[in-house]
Amino acid sequence: MENLVKGKLQRWDDEKGFGFILPEVGSKLVFMHVSAMKNSSRRPKVGDIVSYELFTTRDGKLRAINARIEGVTLKNRSKSSWKKTFLMLLKTAIYIGLAVIFVKMLLNNFDHRKQEAIAIDDMGFQTGAKPKSNNTYSCDGRIHCSQMKSCEEAVFFLRNCPNTQMDGNNDGVPCERQLCGR
């Protein structure tokens, strides 16, 4: 791309949306498509003085880009531009709203899990302590919920035995789906 160049529109085919500019300096006609005048408030006419940037195509032809008709005002910000801005703001507000809802759900779920752990502790299963029961359990190699007979037993194994696999979400409540769920 080069600096801004001026010229006079010599030919214009309004149906096809293109024409040719004769530059002030030089005699080689420059092709201009209507898309080069995106912000013009009217279509070009033969005789218009046009300012443009000169672009040379791969095959060596000259083309006008970013063109503007002298003395013609540029379009005001279009309605579609305002609409796009509004839609972008609306989408952003929706995404923020969804994020807030998601975070609230996570916090509520966390609080619910915390309450479950407190409820199990209230049943007499304190962290690191043996459960209050007449039964005595011992670490005998069982590690899965399917091997437990009660929630009390699962809590004992989780808190006191190595390598257990009974607390998938690491919230301190074992076998939530089978034995200790609420």
TrEMBL record:
Which positions fall inside the CSD domain?
A: 4-69
Query: Taxonomic lineage of this organism?
Result: Bacteria, Pseudomonadati, Pseudomonadota, Gammaproteobacteria, Thiotrichales
The protein's name: CSD domain-containing protein
CDD domains hit by this protein:
CSP_CDS
- Gene3D superfamilies annotated for this entry? Nucleic acid-binding proteins
Q: Which GO terms describe its biological process?
A: regulation of mRNA stability
Keyword Hydrolase in the entry? The reply is: no
Q: Name one GO cellular component term.
A: cytosol
- Which keywords appear in this protein's UniProt record, sorted alphabetically? Membrane, Phosphoprotein, Transmembrane, Transmembrane helix
The UniProt entry, under InterPro entries, shows: Ca-reg_mRNA-binding_domain (IPR052069), CSD (IPR011129), CSP_DNA-bd (IPR002059), Excalibur_Ca-bd_domain (IPR008613), NA-bd_OB-fold (IPR012340)
MF terms (GO), sorted A to Z = mRNA 3'-UTR binding
